[in-house]
Amino acid sequence: MSMRPVGLPEIPEQTVVVARAAFPEGSLAMRVRDHLAEVFVDEPFAEAFGVRGAPGLSPGVLSLVTVL
């Protein structure tokens, strides 16, 4: 299994607009992602993965989902 560090995916603009309209003050999940996004990066996990093979799931995204 391999991994190419990519970081958290960008949130589509329309999703941001709808989420801010639904939660003007933000929800707990929105605040967690906004404040902790740099904690959940892939680079610290890169050495745990090989350079060949099928790409694995992003450990940063999996960590963020676990926290949420």
Tags for this entry?
3 helices; 68 residues; 41% helix; elongated; mainly alpha
Summarize this structure briefly:
It contains three helices and no strands. By secondary structure, it is an all-alpha fold.
SSE order and pairing:
Layout: H1 13-22, H2 28-36, H3 59-67
What can you see in these coordinates?
By secondary structure, the protein is mainly alpha-helical. Helices cover 41% and strands 0% of the residues. The protein contains 3 helices and no strands. The longest helix is centred in the N-terminal third of the chain and has 10 residues, at 13-22. It is elongated.
Termini Cα gap: 26 Å
Following the backbone from N to C, one meets helices and strands in this order, namely: HHH
Helical residues, percent: 40-55%
Low-confidence stretches: none
Question: Radius of gyration, Cα only, in angstroms?
Answer: 14 Å
Number of strands: 0
> What spatial form do the alpha-carbon principal axes imply?
elongated
- Give me the secondary-structure category: mainly alpha
- Overall pLDDT confidence: 84
Q: Approximately how much beta-strand content do the residues carry?
A: under 5%
Number of DSSP helices?
Answer: 3
Largest sheet: none
